[in-house]
TrEMBL record:
This is Delta-aminolevulinic acid dehydratase. It comes from Iamia majanohamensis. Belongs to the ALAD family. It catalyses: 2 5-aminolevulinate = porphobilinogen + 2 H2O + H(+). Catalyzes an early step in the biosynthesis of tetrapyrroles. Binds two molecules of 5-aminolevulinate per subunit, each at a distinct site, and catalyzes their condensation to form porphobilinogen. It comes from the Bacteria. The gene is hemB. The keyword Methyltransferase does not apply. CDD domains: ALAD_PBGS (cd00384).
């Protein structure tokens, strides 16, 4: 053969051609913005390791969600930073807890124009920083924790969450939450399960954002997944779908694109991927030094996550990308 039979460059020649044959599109419609709301503050507080992201006051949260709506971002997921923490994480299920108060504010502000999601976990609210209740020996008690998650789910649904998102990696959490919601008449509230959630070093900046320190320098390896395991992720995804999850999530995203692709192929519910705090901060830090083009890297990363099979992406880049894409 004197020259290649197929000249793949033909379809790469002009921007219009490239646009026409693009296999993957990143759109504002695919994005969910994670937001932090802190109890008892009047002004937003910056988060050092998450440049551009803040702990919101109630008022600044309302304004931010209205802005996201105007940018066309269809969903937000809320994390609370309570004033007081205790062993049972009481603030998570208190009707006057910060997330519940914020959800009522947001229903009032944007109604159903933005999908209001609530992260459902105890770690922001417990004084020991774990995602569940502790046994006297200091390990996380799976089944006792499920009862707390059921209470949190009910409180979040009462306050107006359209979607609750359990992130604690307890066995049976989706089933416990689904039945608690149904028993309370919240059949329409959906569950987005953090299904394959890894014990990742990329959550560091998030812990600063929610003021969480795990007691005694502990970690979450006894409930979150080992980064080397992929078959186990599929088992988690299958369990969560069987228990009634409406969407399933893989987290973090970039180091787990194989898991996203496997999950996409294995189940028919929408797949969410969480581009986590460390993934965001690494882009920002390198861009700040002029080492990479931050905007270009952001778009490349999010496009790759979509290409791997994620239908929706939770990302701190949501507003920025919505602006870039012309919202
Ligand atoms: C747990 C939770 C965490 C994140 C989301 N939900 C932290 C953890 O598991 O330690 C991390 C998100 C991020 O890093 O952006 N409630």
């Amino acid at each position: 053969m004197p020259f290649p039979q197929r000249r793949l460059r033909r379809l790469r020649r002009t921007p219009a051609l490239r646009r026409l044959v693009a296999e993957t599109r990143l759109g504002v419609d695919d994005l969910i913005a994670p937001l932090f709301v802190r109890e008892g503050i009047d002004e937003p507080h910056p988060i050092g390791s998450l440049p551009g992201v803040v702990q919101h006051s109630r008022a600044s949260l309302r304004a931010e969600v209205a802005r996201l709506r105007d940018l066309g971002v269809p969903g937000i997921v809320l994390f609370g930073v309570p004033e007081a923490k205790d062993p049972a994480g009481t603030g998570a299920s208190d009707p006057d807890g910060i997330v519940q108060v914020a959800l009522r504010d947001l229903r009032d502000e944007v109604g159903d124009d933005v999908v209001l999601m609530a992260d459902l976990c105890l770690d922001e609210y417990t004084d020991h920083g774990h995602c569940g209740l502790l046994t006297p020996q200091g390990t996380v008690d799976n089944d006792a924790t499920l009862e707390r998650y059921a209470e949190v789910a009910r409180a979040q649904a009462e306050a107006g969450a359209a979607v609750v998102a359990p992130s604690g990696m307890m066995d049976g959490q989706v089933a416990a939450i689904r039945s608690a919601l149904d028993d309370a008449g919240h059949h329409e509230v959906a569950v987005m399960a953090y299904a394959a959630k890894y014990a990742s070093a990329l959550y560091g900046p998030f812990r600063e954002a929610v003021d969480v320190e795990i007691a005694g320098g502990g970690d979450r390896r006894a409930y979150q997944q080992d980064p080397g395991n992929a078959r186990e992720a599929l088992a988690e995804v299958a369990e969560d779908v069987a228990e009634g999850a409406d969407l399933v999530m893989v987290k973090p995203a970039l180091a787990y694109l194989d898991v996203i692709a496997d999950a996409r192929a294995a189940v028919d519910v929408p797949i969410a991927a969480y581009h986590v705090s460390g993934e965001y901060s690494m882009i920002k830090a390198a861009a700040e030094r002029g080492w990479v083009d931050g905007e270009a890297v952001a778009l490349e990363h999010l496009t790759a996550i979509r290409r791997a099979g994620a239908d929706v992406i939770l990302t701190y880049l949501a507003a920025e990308v919505a602006e870039l894409l012309g919202g």
